[in-house]
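Predict the 3D structure for this chain.
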Amino acid sequence: MTERLDGPQAPGGDELAAGASPGPAETEPDVARPPATDTNTDTSTDTDADTATDPTDTDTGTAIATDPRPGATGTATAPRPATGHTAATRLSPSPKIAVFFLLPALLLLAAWVIYPIIYSIFRSLFDAAGDRFVGLKNYAAIISDPSMLATLWHNAIWVAMAPLIVTVLGLIFAVMTERIRWATAFKLILFMPMAVSLLAAGVIFRLVYEQDPDKGVANAVITTVHDTFSSSQGYPGARPRENDQAPVVLKNGDVVTRQPVQPGQQVLIPLVGLKPDAVEKATPAKAAGAGGLSGTVWLDVVRGGGGTVNQIDGTEKGLAGITVEAVAGGQVKATTETAADGTFYFSGLSAGSYDVRLPQSNFEAAFNGITWLGPTLITLAIIGAYIWVWAGFAMVLIAAGLSAIPRDALEAARIDGATEWQVFRRITVPLLSPVLLVVFVTMVINVLKVFDLVFIIAPGSVQPQANVIALEMWRVSFGGGGNQGMGSALAIFLLVLVLPFMIFNIRRFRRDER
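Done. Predicted structure below.
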């Protein structure tokens, strides 16, 4: 009966079912199966099909052999070979090889990072010479010394301004690059400063911020715009002669005619106190023509000596661009300006007596731009250089995050009637907030450690007004201070300030990876 239901057992049948090659082998005992009945033919057929489809028992991990003949239900099970799933294949290198490759990096990390930190902590507890233990006095000096407090204040200005401005500009540039034709060229230009070292960037901006407009680009632009709307001609040091023969006198900084004049008279206003080189390229002075109230303002000095005092000589230079006022009863009735040869004319004046006056503003120094490298603006000027370097970096990171924003969300908002500003404020910025936060925190870490730009751009006379922690650490330790204890304390203090932001960034990176 069993032979009729199960069929004849071929030698090695179980091994063939398990994937072994045919040949003599020991036969496995049959597994008892309930006899098939004719009353449940459909069920038997379904069971046989299922059994034939999945010949593996997933619970026991053994192979099931089935007889393919119609109507046969006999099966046999055989254990998996030892070379199956129980023998896992190692895909990663062995721990010894991993340690072998990591060991050089670990040694360098220990030599250049771990050991200096430990030694700096130890050294900060001693005095400048390192002979006497002072405990936490160096750390107490950081928060009590006035110059140190000023340094901390400068760092606070950096942290409050630079990261925020860099992040905002990076966001604006990233959004702009999506709406212009030459986006690649625009990104390349903005990112190019990253290819320049901070030392080179400091040298560049030291020249940009030069006071002389002929050297400094910033002041050249500013003075050009200023001169477009107002005259910057000035003759500092110019004055009348101090004697009774001089036709003009100095009153409260203004140069005023000694005697009142009337229309139709010629007014001579000779001045001294200027070096001939200052007006070397000026036009020679000449007497004013007749008509109205007129006159001449000139430098009454002849190179090499000679000439007539208070008279126009052929080689004397006219003073151009000087403001001249006609004053009557303490009120300015008319204003004019001298020509290239120093002559001036008042037209339309009514009859009467007038005092001709040259305002004090004529003798002040000409507008020479802004003192970028002075004690007032030095920190803001260096922050401007920092922004120039890092704005492109922020733009690239934010642009990468912007490209990952689903466009269907933006288009859906526009279809619903949202303006571009609303799309930007309510959709783009919230979706970019993780990227913006990473950029902002990275910039905070950078500004806390800023050194190169401050050291190069700030002149020595104003470095105390631009000082930051990293620069003060170098000055105290190696820049002439010779106090290794205080320098080590500043280094550890800076490390404590930077660590929270670094930990925040690392935790965020790990959270994003999950």
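DSSP finds 16 helices and eleven strands in the chain.
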